[in-house]
Amino acid sequence: MEAPSTALEEPGISFRREHLSRMAAHCLSCYPEEGCGLLVGDASTGEVREVHATENVAHSSQVYTVDPRAHLKIDRAAEETGMSVIGVFHSHTHTDPYPSPTDVRQAPDPNWHYVLVSLRHEVPSTRSYRIVDGSVREETVSLSAR
Amino acid sequence: MSVEVRLPTLLRPAADGRAVVTATGGTVGELLADLQRSYPAIQGQLLGDDGSLHRFVNVYLNDDDVRYLERLETKVSEGDTVSILPAVAGGAA
Fold this sequence. Notes:
By secondary structure, chain A is of the alpha/beta class. Chain A contains three helices and nine strands, in the order βαβββαβαββββ. Chain A has one domain: 3-Layer(aba) Sandwich (Cytidine Deaminase, domain 2).
């Protein structure tokens, strides 16, 4: 009998449907500036439990910076409930949802999920990536049951 | 004086897996220097060669970003908490 594989597939990232709507709505509300926010959830499964829209303190259509004070507040609250910040989302207002050289260069944590919301077309499109040592890999985005 | 320092997940392996450590100093800069002495693997992650705070790191004294206080010269007091988080930035440019 063949031994079962012990290799674990990476879980990708999962959202509730309302999370996807919230990210798109926030990004549209920030247009023409880039919108951004943080994703809180379970780092071991990639399940997003909370989407936190934050101010883009760069106020730019080309770059974003998550409000540092909001980041601290969200990080503390997540840890108090046994969760953690597991990623970040931001919009590309006129380009496809693929990490730019700036996104790759400034990716803060190789364990995070990097979600891009493109507003290039009429219907926003969302993709998620892992960025490790400058290397970009798209991951599966799925809808969670709860 | 001894002050609590909260570390981001990325730096915890360099501090024996701890999320919270204590460091000694009268200013944020002195605390970070002490932290680097205690955990040499953190060296280079927080401060540049010129001794200034890396732009991709945010350091907070309690609820405030020290860049809006007196940066590394910001004084700390007994009971304060210093937190370190990565700066989160990027964009289409």
